[in-house]
Amino acid sequence: FDTMMSLPHSFGSVLSNVNILAFTVFFIVYCLVRFYQKRRHLSNIPPGPKPWPLVGNFGGFLIPSFIQRRFGQESASSDKSPVAALTELNKLYGNIYSLFVGSQLHVVLNGYDVIRDAFSNHPEVFSDRPDIPAISIMTKRKGIVFAPYGPVWKKQRKFCHATLRKFGLGKLSLEPCIVQGLDTIKAELLRLNEESDGAGVDPAPLISHAVSNVICSLILGQRFHHEDLEAGNLCEQPAVLINVFPLLYYLPFGVFKELRQVEGDMTAFLKRFIATHRETLDPKNPRDLTDMYLIEMLAQQAAGNLDSSFTEDYLFYIIGDLFIAGTDTTANSVLWVLLYLVLNTDIQDRVQAEIDKVVGTRRVPSLTDKGSLPFTEATIMEVQRLAVVVPLGIPHMASETTEFRGYSIPKGTVVVPNLWSVHRDPTVWDDPDTFNPDRFLDDDGNLLRREYFIPFGIGRRVCMGEQLAKMEMFLTVTSLLQAFKFRLPEGTPQPTLRGRFGLTLAPCSYTVCVIPRS
């Protein structure tokens, strides 16, 4: 013992390093063995590229994109976006193929026929939601968008959809709320454009603010200043890495720390408003969805239904779902429309000529004008087709092992609907990569409803806010184009159409010069 105690201290350090190395090697070998054991049990699954150990296939697609975005490499010369790369795989493996995120099997569905078959003809099997680490950590698998399919989800979705309709979803009664926000946008655009001295304005913050306030009016019963709604790019960048290595979420530095801070701020923000609504609730005069939910919750309690899913905790996650999903998708859709129109000024001129002819300049556009503005509608739809702001939809999950189109889909498989592949399919769209609004018009100039146009998804998980999004996009685009011409600042390079792949496919940051038409 005395001899051992007299050994140099460095020898103990060497032993410690050897132990760490041995543990690391053991851990890696263990993970590899588990990975290949799990793969051996998967028989007759769809074909696909060979996965990398530990990280699977998605490391080759999404991690390079994460690195590009983190270091600002978002030029038009960048490699293909992850979703375009995923779509090209169907040339090698067909319209149904397999990928792995870590050891988790994902089956990607490509093309309209395959996606419709899965979600419309087999809804009980393919309507569930997977346990995705980056999402589950924050949503606790509650709410509407990411909650598992089942009786609780059906009750909550039915209630929320009925309540939103009561407060104007898809109706003219919601139009004044949207128009009020547009008045603010137009005034701010002019002010910022004058202050820019020709450098142009980034429209993203203003568009996002206006869309957020519509959601806030429906859910929380009030509007907010821009600074109050500044939440940042919630979990876009670190989400990919967290899904592969969930423990990264808890790292006390970098983007992971920033993510937890944003999540904490949002939690405090929403819970404060739920508490205020509870304290000021008047059951005879509900002000918004939150009031209606609290009234239903109290009714369930009064009826002695102690197992009811209507709780303040569930309400918190529903509000978060509607707030985040309803803001990001619609705001990015409007931003894509503006971007395509500044890059195609001839189309912008045609839209404005139609608005001038139907609406004129003495009143703001209304939803009642929608049927009389077919080219404007066609332009919005064509941008939605090309941009596809949720290109891979929201992931589904197989709730049981099933046979689908000759392949075995094991229970728990993540099922990814590649909506991008539907909207860029050359077998159903002529010259699909070209911006051409006329493809949505018939020979008489009337609007065509195309079966293959599904930007809001399909099946039982179709977007609940589809009608609201359509209202906001139409009113925002027509109001802005009635008031302004949008042009690129002199001497600036043409913005890329590649987009930023995160929770949604958002356009890369761009600026526009705002020219009053009056």
Automatic annotation (TrEMBL):
Enzyme class per UniProt: oxidoreductase
Name of this protein: Cytochrome P450 2U1
Catalytic activity, EC: 1.14.14.80
One of the GO BP terms on file: lipid metabolic process
GO MF terms held by the record: heme binding; iron ion binding; long-chain fatty acid omega-hydroxylase activity; steroid hydroxylase activity
Keywords: Endoplasmic reticulum, Heme, Iron, Lipid metabolism, Membrane, Metal-binding, Microsome, Mitochondrion, Mitochondrion inner membrane, Monooxygenase, Oxidoreductase, Transmembrane, Transmembrane helix
Pfam families xref list: p450
Reactions catalysed according to its record: (5Z,8Z,11Z,14Z)-eicosatetraenoate + reduced [NADPH--hemoprotein reductase] + O2 = 19-hydroxy-(5Z,8Z,11Z,14Z)-eicosatetraenoate + oxidized [NADPH--hemoprotein reductase] + H2O + H(+); N-[(5Z,8Z,11Z,14Z)-eicosatetraenoyl]-serotonin + reduced [NADPH--hemoprotein reductase] + O2 = 2-oxo-N-[(5Z,8Z,11Z,14Z)-eicosatetraenoyl]-serotonin + oxidized [NADPH--hemoprotein reductase] + H2O + H(+); an omega-methyl-long-chain fatty acid + reduced [NADPH--hemoprotein reductase] + O2 = an omega-hydroxy-long-chain fatty acid + oxidized [NADPH--hemoprotein reductase] + H2O + H(+); (5Z,8Z,11Z,14Z)-eicosatetraenoate + reduced [NADPH--hemoprotein reductase] + O2 = 20-hydroxy-(5Z,8Z,11Z,14Z)-eicosatetraenoate + oxidized [NADPH--hemoprotein reductase] + H2O + H(+)
Amino-acid positions noted as binding heme in the UniProt annotation, renumbered to this chain: C463
Organism for this UniProt entry: Labrus bergylta
Family: Belongs to the cytochrome P450 family.
Family annotation (InterPro entries): Cyt_P450 (IPR001128), Cyt_P450_CS (IPR017972), Cyt_P450_E_grp-I (IPR002401), Cyt_P450_E_grp-I_CYP2D-like (IPR008069), Cyt_P450_sf (IPR036396), Cytochrome_P450_fam2 (IPR050182)
Coiled coil: none
PANTHER family: CYTOCHROME P450 2U1, CYTOCHROME P450 508A4-RELATED
Functional description taken from the UniProt entry: A cytochrome P450 monooxygenase involved in the metabolism of arachidonic acid and its conjugates. Mechanistically, uses molecular oxygen inserting one oxygen atom into a substrate, and reducing the second into a water molecule, with two electrons provided by NADPH via cytochrome P450 reductase (CPR; NADPH-ferrihemoprotein reductase). Acts as an omega and omega-1 hydroxylase for arachidonic acid and possibly for other long chain fatty acids. May modulate the arachidonic acid signaling pathway and play a role in other fatty acid signaling processes.
Cofactor(s) this protein cannot do without: heme
Annotated Gene Ontology cellular component terms: endoplasmic reticulum membrane; mitochondrial inner membrane
Transmembrane segments: 14-33
